């Protein structure tokens, strides 16, 4: 117990202040919320990829009813490829543009500024530097996830520039009686002009020096770091930080999400592009990797533990298992975390903190060795893991990997579950005896 008291004290002293800063800092929150705002777009784009790319090869011949359906789907998708892929092009293909709008919107709201005009300024500014017209056409190369980091920077800086200008009174003030919509549009005019001209000027300077526009230069400078981040080390660090925070009662997944999502979305978009082009998928770590391999049942990978609870002789754990099973199937595990409870529970500390990271490392190498295809599509994180993993990869082996990890998780949790169960059974028995004596 002394060890866990020291651990709790250390976490409270060092990790909790950092977590509080990350959770409450307005720019970090704007980044997080702006990216969350774009998640439905990635889901639509991911589902479009699934429809456009049925899991059947060109040489398969229809020999039964199932294969007839698959071949018909393949032929239909091939004949209508452009029309089917249009939703993908207009969602994931423009992901960075929507993130620039979303980040600016949420940051402006936090400052109590007019969020819509701030979003428009950010979106226009992002387009100026990321998609300069060429021969009358709009290039979209950096409007998808490749421009994600540029979008975040533009979203934050454009709002800060606008806020500075307004604090200095550098705006057009309309007289009383002018409709609010008209007044708001003129109020944003000068900030829009200055943001556009400033970023355009910087873009021209960078282009003249490096022969690259801003998003291209940012991506080139980040490329070594991004490639390094797609590694077991990142997986272990993010998982351990998230679970250590959860152990002391802080929603760790929400804290690391700010770091995780830009990286995972960039990797996922690169995989989607490679899949469309028929090329090898370059990345392993994506949001679906986290959802369906690492956090099986929710933070701490507790679905296997929930299944153990269903057979528990402890009334408390058995009741928690019955209540928590359905949510856990959809990756929601607050009933387990708070019903067990897992927070500050010394018996459950080791599996709760480490099982998620173990899942991630195993899944990483299984995919790296080519035994399971990496994910290229986003599926809602509440989709049950075997189904979600299959849809994200269109690889039946992903289902086998999920089930194998589920069995492993249950085995890893089992000795700690039995120790905790024994303690609870003793407490429940003592309570029942005490109540019986009072009634007698």
TrEMBL record:
Keywords: Cell membrane, Membrane, Sugar transport, Transmembrane, Transmembrane helix, Transport. Pfam families: PTS_EIIC. It is found in: Cell membrane. InterPro entries: PTS_EIIC, PTS_EIIC_3, PTS_IIC_cello, PTS_Sugar-EIIC/EIIB. PROSITE patterns: PTS_EIIC_TYPE_3. The chain crosses the membrane at residues 34-52, 86-108, 115-133, 145-165, 186-213, 233-255, 290-310, 347-367, 374-392, 398-417. One of its GO terms (molecular function) is protein-N(PI)-phosphohistidine-sugar phosphotransferase activity. The keyword Membrane applies. Residues 11-416 form the PTS EIIC type-3 domain. It is a multi-pass membrane protein. GO terms for cellular component: plasma membrane. GO terms for biological process: phosphoenolpyruvate-dependent sugar phosphotransferase system. The phosphoenolpyruvate-dependent sugar phosphotransferase system (PTS), a major carbohydrate active -transport system, catalyzes the phosphorylation of incoming sugar substrates concomitant with their translocation across the cell membrane. PANTHER family: PTHR33989, PTS SYSTEM N,N'-DIACETYLCHITOBIOSE-SPECIFIC EIIC COMPONENT (PTHR33989:SF4). NCBIfam families: lacE. This is Permease IIC component. It comes from Thermoanaerobacter thermohydrosulfuricus WC1.
């Amino acid at each position: 117990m002394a060890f866990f008291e020291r651990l709790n004290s250390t976490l409270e002293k060092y990790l909790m202040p950092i977590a509080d800063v990350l959770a409450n800092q307005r720019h970090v929150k704007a980044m997080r919320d702006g990216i969350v705002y774009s998640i439905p777009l990635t889901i639509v784009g991911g589902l479009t990829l699934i429809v456009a790319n049925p899991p059947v090869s060109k040489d398969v011949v229809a020999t039964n009813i199932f294969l007839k359906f698959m071949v018909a789907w393949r032929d239909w998708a091939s004949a209508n490829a452009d029309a089917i892929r249009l939703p993908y092009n207009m969602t994931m293909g423009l992901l960075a543009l929507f993130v620039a709008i979303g980040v600016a919107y949420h940051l402006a709201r936090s400052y109590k500024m007019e969020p819509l005009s701030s979003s428009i300024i950010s979106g226009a500014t992002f387009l100026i530097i990321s998609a300069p017209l060429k021969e009358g056409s709009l290039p979209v190369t950096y409007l998808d996830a490749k421009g994600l980091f540029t979008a975040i920077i533009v979203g934050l800086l454009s709002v800060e520039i606008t806020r500075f200008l307004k604090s200095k009174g550098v705006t057009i003030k309309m007289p009383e009686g002018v409709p609010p919509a008209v007044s708001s549009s003129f109020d944003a005019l000068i900030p829009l002009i200055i943001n556009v001209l400033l970023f355009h000027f910087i873009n021209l300077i960078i282009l003249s020096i490096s022969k690259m526009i801003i998003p291209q230069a940012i991506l080139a400078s980040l490329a070594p770091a991004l490639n390094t981040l797609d590694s077991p080390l990142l997986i272990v660090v993010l998982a351990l930080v998230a679970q250590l925070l959860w152990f002391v009662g802080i929603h760790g997944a929400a804290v690391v999400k700010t770091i995780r999502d830009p990286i995972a979305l960039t990797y996922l978009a690169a995989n989607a592009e490679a899949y469309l082009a028929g090329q090898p998928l370059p990345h392993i770590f994506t949001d679906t990797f986290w959802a369906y391999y690492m956090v099986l049942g929710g933070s701490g990978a507790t679905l296997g533990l929930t299944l153990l609870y269903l057979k528990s002789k402890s009334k408390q754990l058995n009741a928690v298992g019955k209540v928590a099973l359905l949510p856990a199937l959809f990756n929601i595990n607050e009933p387990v975390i708070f019903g067990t409870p897992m927070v500050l529970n010394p018996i459950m500390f080791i599996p709760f903190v480490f099982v998620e990271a173990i899942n991630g490392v195993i899944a990483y190498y299984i995919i790296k060795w080519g035994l399971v295809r990496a994910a290229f599509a986003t599926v809602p994180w509440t989709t049950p893991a075997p189904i979600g993993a299959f849809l994200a990869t269109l690889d039946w082996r992903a289902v086998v990997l999920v089930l194998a990890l589920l069995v492993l998780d249950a085995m890893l949790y089992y000795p700690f579950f039995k120790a905790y169960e024994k303690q609870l059974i003793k407490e429940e028995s003592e309570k029942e005896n005490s109540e019986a004596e009072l009634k007698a």
